[in-house]
Design brief:
The chain is 84% helix and 0% strand. The radius of gyration is 20 Å and the shape is globular. It folds into two domains: 2-144, no CATH class; 147-186, no CATH class. Helix 3 crosses helix 6. The longest helix has 27 residues, at 39-65. The termini are far apart. By secondary structure, it is mostly helical.
Length: 186
């Protein structure tokens, strides 16, 4: 039970982040590789925590929307009205929450700012994530028993694997700090 609470807390926390959080599927995969818990409860806990986190994120952005200019609030209200007026547009938007390749944080942030009804979107998100997390969890469980799974985990958790990850982060910081205008000019 404690492992499920830890999974719930981690997934909830990641899904409360407005940007730059790791994808939840990666947490589900890591949990699947590291534990022998039945997959169905892992998937349900992760999907529920992800949906709750995104719902709360949208509510926070709804409160943030109160601080926007009148013009911006009017624009968002017009977008919401257009979405709610056209049933096919609403169904398309809900489908986007189920299957979207777009990061879900930004979808929920937009939904919160536009003050759309959040429960249909959250339910669609939960349903979509239940299916996708199940696929990832079963895949992780399958490769765990193979040399591919062992090799993948060994490389990720080895000192060399950790050093490569740290080096890549340092290169990313360096890449972001370079004056690219100056470099590309010469």
């Amino acid at each position: 039970m404690g492992d499920y609470l830890i999974l719930l807390a981690i997934v909830l926390g990641v899904n409360l982040l407005p940007a730059f959080g790791p994808p939840t599927w990666s947490i589900v995969v890591l949990f699947g590789l590291q534990t022998d818990h039945p997959i169905a409860p892992v998937v349900l806990v992760a999907a529920l925590a992800a949906a709750l986190g995104r719902y709360l994120l949208a509510l926070a952005f709804r409160l943030l929307g109160d601080r926007l200019s009148t013009k911006t609030r009017d624009n968002l209200a017009a977008a919401r009205e257009a979405l709610e007026r056209r049933r096919h547009a609403m169904l398309l938007a809900i489908g986007l929450f189920v299957l979207s390749p777009v990061p879900s944080a930004q979808l929920f942030e937009a939904a919160g700012l536009a003050r759309v009804r959040l429960l249909p979107f959250t339910a669609a998100f939960f349903a979509g994530r239940t299916v996708s997390y199940a696929i990832y969890a079963y895949s992780a469980r399958e490769i765990r028993g193979t040399s591919v799974g062992d090799s993948l985990f060994e490389h990720l958790a080895s000192p060399w694997g950790i050093a490569v990850q740290i080096a890549m982060l340092a290169l990313l910081v360096l890449f972001a700090r370079l004056d690219w205008r100056k470099i590309l000019k010469s």
